[in-house]
Each structure stands twice: as C-alpha cells, then as structure tokens.
Design a protein that fits this description.
153 residues; alpha/beta; five-stranded parallel sheet
Length: 153
C-alpha cells in the first residue's frame, strides 16, 4: 500500500482549480485533507461553494472546505475572472448549483491551524490562488513552517 501524503489545497476554485482538485482527489498517493478558498477567480465564498460542487461531483463530501480572505492584504479587489470562469465560476458548466454540504464553520486560517497540527510534520500545503490566506496563516500561526513539510506555490 502506498503512503498517502496529506495535502491542504488553498485555491480560488474556478475551472483551472476544479481540474487540479479532480486530479488530486483521484491520486492514490495524495490525501486531500482540507481545502481553503480565497478571492481571485471569484469571491472567496463563491469559490468555496464551487469547491463543494466539485467535491459532491466525485463523492468526497468528507473533505472540509473553509472560506478565507475576500480581499488582498492591501487595497481592494479590483478584478475577478468571471469573464474567463463564467458567472458561476465553473465555466457555467451545468453542474448543479445547489449543494447539500455546508462550508466549515472554521475560517481558512483556523482550518490551516487545525490540519497543520493534526498532520504535524506530514502536511503539504498547495497554494494555487492569491496567497492572502497563506500570509494570514503565517502571521497567525508562529510555528506553521515547523508544522508543515512545505508550501508549494
């Protein structure tokens, strides 16, 4: 049996991140243990909802999804990529808009804190959206870099 690497994905789920999630969720050597959303392709709340849509598509409602930063560290959001990713953020693909799974009551930083402690020394973070959640986590969790194997950007 292959050892599965625990991975937390920090993303702004649009079409590209949905494809990345589908790829990761079907790998035998990866255990997606959590997903955090951030503004970028759409609002963070919409990106979290899109993530739940993708997870329900493949029967992985067990993966917690937490909403993260809705704006950058400095300034305001000046751009969302709805012209690329559609109004629903998933290319207006026709996936059901309603989901039966709720987002986590934890914030993105709280989920990163919890999972980095639970999987101390094993967790890898894959950040494929704006890095605002990662910045907040590094600021709020002083020993985060000691807890995780790495943060892949």
């Amino acid at each position: 049996m292959t050892t599965r690497t625990p991975v937390l994905v920090d993303c702004d789920t649009g079409v590209d991140d949905a494809m990345a999630l589908l790829y990761l969720l079907h790998r035998d050597d990866i255990d997606v243990v959590g997903i955090t959303s951030v503004f970028g392709n759409n609002r963070a709340a919409q990106c979290a909802h899109n993530t739940l849509r993708v997870l329900e598509l493949v029967g992985r409602e067990d993966v917690p999804v937490a909403v993260g930063a809705e704006k950058p560290l400095v300034g305001e959001v000046t751009y969302l990529a709805t012209h690329v990713h559609g109004e629903d953020g998933l290319g207006d693909s026709g996936l059901p808009l309603e989901v039966s799974t709720a987002v986590s009551p934890l914030t993105a930083v709280e989920l990163i804190d919890e999972l980095s402690e639970r999987h101390r020394g094993e967790l890898r973070i894959l950040a494929v959206g704006p890095l605002t959640n990662i910045a907040h986590a590094l600021d709020s969790i002083p020993d985060l870099t000691d807890r995780v194997v790495d943060i892949v950007i």
